[in-house]
Amino acid sequence: MSGSEIIVIILVFLMLFGTKNLPAIARTLGKGMNELRKATDDIKKEMNVNTEEVTKLREKIKKEIEESVNIQDDIKKGNAIVSETFSLKKTSYPNKAENTDSNKTDSQNIDYSI
Q1: Whole-angstrom Cα distance, residue 12 to residue 25?
Q2: How many independent structural domains does the chain possess?
Q3: Shortest CA distance to 26 belongs to which of 3, 9, 2?
Q4: Can you give the three-state secondary structure of 34-76, one letter per residue?
Q5: Is 24 among the domain residues?
Q6: Which domain holds residue 18?
């Protein structure tokens, strides 16, 4: 608003309300503007606090997800290493000879009946 517009507004107020009521109206408007400013500041503070809480919560969740992914990657790597180890260490066992009396040792030939 320019200076001339403000002067026109003041003149209109003087004509409408008179010189006796103008100070009271100005005080009321000033108090209303002050309360509006305080309410706006309170809302801004509340928004900042909530935003900080949400940001902290988001960071906490992000860290937990990253840790979970790292653990899953470690598990996958561990499974890959285990499967590689087992695939490299496959051994073939010789065929067992049939269990005949001639192949039995002395301990196997003991008769335990009474």
Answers
A1: 13
A2: 1
A3: 9
A4: HHHHHHHHHHHHHHHHHHHHHHHHHHHHHHHHHHHHHHHHHHH
A5: yes
A6: 12-84
pTM: 0.42
14: left (phi over 0), alpha (psi -120 to 50) or beta: alpha
- Residue 7 covered by a domain: no
Residue 106 in any domain: the answer is no
pLDDT per residue of the chain (114 residues) written in tens, 0 to 9 = 788 888 888 888 888 888 888 788 889 989 999 999 999 999 999 999 989 999 999 999 999 888 888 877 777 776 656 555 555 555 555 555 555 555 555 555 565 556
d(CA 13, CA 111): 128
In a domain, 98, yes or no: no
